Amino acid sequence: MRIAFINLDRATERRAFMEAQASRLELTFERVRAVEAGEIEEALAARLNGRWERPLTRAELGCFLSHHALWREVAEGRGPMLVLEDDAILSRQLSLALSRLAAFDRAEFLNLESFERRRFVARQASDLGPGLAVRRVFRDKSGSAAYLLWPAGARKLLARAERGAAPVDAFLHGLSGLNAWQVEPALAIQAHLWERRSGGAPIDAATSIQAPRGHLPLTLANLPFRARRVATQIRLAGQHLRRLGPATYRRTDLRDEDFR
């Protein structure tokens, strides 16, 4: 399986961190150069932006385009790719789990990480062998640091991208037609979340993409953004109704000992 991690040229510490994880796990990682915010042409930014719940920053657009380039490659292939961001802390169980996950033919997208938030998932998990299971995801919100993507899923993401961009995690988890699953226990966690959970991180966990932002002013120009946000909240309310049937709202388990 091809394993690619997205990394800015200037983020040399994170590149070294990912390469060290690859060596420890006895896996081969391919570095993929991330798109710099300053490289994005105005025409492309204008075409992609303005279609989500708020305007995207250039850093968010750069992240989106970096993932988008890998989606194109997956769409042209025959098997899944493991896509990583360079702040993903990986479980020591990842090497053993990958072959079983790749053989799971019911998924188009398989999330490997815990984002320390609850998500709407199926009550019943599918067992993939000792210590590993997957669970159908009905709705998630966050996390794009570690996922398996199959060609069918990549083609759906590319088709949706023709209508505009969103923050990558919102884009991935907001596509209702994507056959998405979650691995349990989680096999990855982002550095800033691990720092909060454990009290420390092996790299500088600060990220401009996740930086807090102010509220969108109530202006005529911003009404379409606000309308989309309201529509999202209505859809989430519908997901809560699913909890009366096949869905539950829960966090993904993560074994701390697998990350130390």
Helix-and-strand structural type = alpha+beta
Helix content: 25-40%
Radius of gyration: 18 Å
Q: Biggest β-sheet: count, sense, barrel? A: 10 strands, mixed
Q: Approximately what portion of the residues adopt beta-strand conformation?
A: 15-25%
SS field, number of helical segments: 8
| H and E order | EHEHHEEHEEEEEHHEEHHE
Query: Overall mean pLDDT score?
Result: 90
Shape: globular
Distance between the termini: 25 Å
Number of strands: 12
Unreliable stretches covering 5 or more consecutive residues: none
What would a concise description of this structure say?
The protein is 35% helix and 19% strand. The protein has 260 residues and is α+β, with helices and mostly antiparallel strands.
What is the fold's blueprint, element by element?
Blueprint: E1 2-7, H1 12-25, E2 30-33, H2 42-48, H3 58-75, E3 81-85, E4 88-90, H4 94-102, E5 109-111, E6 119-122, E7 126-127, E8 133-139, E9 146-149, H5 151-161, H6 168-173, E10 180-184, E11 188-190, H7 191-198, H8 223-241, E12 247-250
Helix pairs in contact: 3-5
Care to describe what's here?
Helix 3 (58-75) crosses helix 5 (151-161). It is globular, with a radius of gyration of 18 Å. The strands form 2 sheets. Strands 1, 2, 3, 5, 6, 7, 8, 9, 10 and 12 form a 10-stranded mixed β-sheet that branches. Strands 4-11 form a two-stranded antiparallel ribbon. The chain is built from 8 helices and 12 strands. The longest helix is centred in the last third of the chain and has 19 residues, at 223-241. It has helices at 12-25, 42-48, 58-75, 94-102, 151-161, 168-173, 191-198, 223-241; strands at 2-7, 30-33, 81-85, 88-90, 109-111, 119-122, 126-127, 133-139, 146-149, 180-184, 188-190, 247-250. The mean pLDDT is 90. The chain has 260 residues and is an alpha+beta fold. Helix 1 (12-25) links the parallel strand 1 (2-7) and strand 2 (30-33).
